[in-house]
């Protein structure tokens, strides 16, 4: 199991455990954990409503694709560590990572 954290606006962190060997995306885990992630395109990197900021653990994510970067460029509030949760696969590399939800519902 991989343990990562979601940080709220007050800096409080909630841990989430997820299997690292099933090829699930961060978006799928966040939705299954009842976080307010719209993900209106269903994980195709077309809507950016699953926008997250990587607070800690960016090195384990790899580089964003050109499609993902194009969507991030169109966001009203991107940060240098913005990513789309639908494009981040859960793996052991995410163990200990911290994310902050930034999508349209936040």
Automatic annotation (TrEMBL):
Pfam families reported for this sequence: Fer2 (PF00111)
Cofactor: [2Fe-2S] cluster
Domain of life (superkingdom): Bacteria
Residues forming coiled coils: none
GO BP terms in the entry: P450-containing electron transport chain
GO molecular function, one term: 2 iron, 2 sulfur cluster binding
Record has Metal-binding as a keyword: yes
InterPro entries: 2Fe-2S_ferredoxin-like_sf (IPR036010), 2Fe-2S_ferredoxin-type (IPR001041), Adrenodoxin-like (IPR001055), Beta-grasp_dom_sf (IPR012675)
UniProtKB keywords: 2Fe-2S, Iron, Iron-sulfur, Metal-binding
Chain ranges of the 2Fe-2S ferredoxin-type domain: 1-105
PANTHER family: FERREDOXIN-2, MITOCHONDRIAL (PTHR23426:SF65), FERREDOXIN/ADRENODOXIN (PTHR23426)
Protein family: Belongs to the adrenodoxin/putidaredoxin family.
Record protein name field: Ferredoxin
Species of the source: Anditalea andensis
């Amino acid at each position: 199991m991989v343990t990562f954290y979601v940080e709220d606006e007050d800096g409080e962190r909630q841990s989430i455990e997820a299997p690292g060997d099933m090829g699930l995306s961060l978006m799928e885990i966040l939705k299954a954990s009842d976080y307010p992630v719209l993900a209106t395109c269903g994980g195709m990197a077309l809507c950016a409503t699953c926008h997250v900021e990587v607070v800690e653990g960016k090195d384990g994510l790899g580089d964003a694709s050109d499609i993902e970067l194009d969507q991030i460029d169109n966001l009203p509030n991107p940060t240098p560590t913005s990513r789309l949760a639908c494009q981040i696969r859960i793996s052991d590399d995410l163990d200990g990572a911290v994310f902050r939800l930034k999508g349209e519902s936040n």
